[in-house]
Structure formats: structure tokens, C-alpha cells
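Folding Task

Wanted — backbone structure
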Amino acid sequence: VLGEIRASAFGGELRLRDLVVEEPLGLVPRARMDLALHRLDLAQLTSVFDFGRIQGRLNLELDELRLQQWRPVAFTARLYTPPGDDAPRRISQRAVNNISRVGGGGAVAALSSGVMRYFDSFGYRRIGWSCTLRRGVCQMGGVGPARDGRGYVLVEGQGLPRIDVIGHAQQVSWDSLLTQLRNLSAKPAPGVQ
């Protein structure tokens, strides 16, 4: 068991704890650990990936991560806006569309038609996503339930114009989710100029 590793990443702090590696050169290498990234600068992070621009800070907590043949087979993950953070918070249309796709929402149609298409970015109060991976399936959630009780909030808007991103996919195959995430950065968002 390795104690704790700390490093800096994207303006925030990475902390790896309780790393255990079993049979690293064997037929079925296994590892387990807890990983936390605190106060990541989203402007730095989203400038590296072709996802859309987001400003603000983000925490990632990845607990009980289990790897088998260096692939995740179980974990509890949570991404969220740190409480009390006073950094400016803006999100581009492209990022809204991509987050909506991951959550199974329909923001693309709403943004590409009507008044919303005239805005490049939107203010937000908080962002949140969670996934509990077990047996190849990710049980998904957000910062809380949607107002109508159907789905969960991934991006809670703030100011005018206000846009909330609601996720509807409750259970998603882990392999399908990874494919979806890879595809997001490979092509532009449709309908948004």
C-alpha cells in the first residue's frame, strides 16, 4: 500500500491515496485507489480538450476505484462545483450541448432555435455529475433532481438568460459512455454556430 501522492494539475491539486497494485505484470493486473482533484481551473482544462469552454472551478472525487487489466471495473465518482468558490462561472453553448448529450438531455434543439442561439455563453450556479460504476453499468446523477421530478440537474443556470441542463439517462453502459465521451471531442456540436 502506497501512502499518498500529491501533485498539481490544471491549477488545482491532485491527491492519490491508498494505492494497491496486484500482479502488475501478470495476466490480470489489478489496482485499487482513491483519487481526488480539487479546485481544477475549468478554463485551463477545457482549453486542452475540444469540449467547449467552461470557466469556474471543479472538484472530482473518485472513491474506491478498482482497475482490472488497467481498466475501471468499479468506482464511485462525483464532479461538482466547490462550495464557497467565488470564481466567475460561464459555460459555452458547445459545452452545454456536450454535457446534455452525456446526460441524455435535449439542449441541442433548444439552443439552435429561438432566442438562445444569439448567446455564446451562459452563467451557471453549479455543475455536478455522479457515476457509480458496478458490473459495467454507470448509475448517473447530478447536483440534484430536476424541478419536474424527471431526471437530474447537471448544470444549474444563473442569471439571464438562464439555462439548466437536465440529464435523463439513469443507467448507462460504461463502454457506451466512454465511446460517447470520445466522440464529443472528435466532432463539432450540431446546430450551434
User: Anything to note?
Assistant: DSSP finds four helices and 13 strands in the chain. Confidence is low (pLDDT under 50) at residues 107-113, 187-193. The radius of gyration is 18 Å. The first strand starts at residue 2 and ends at 9.
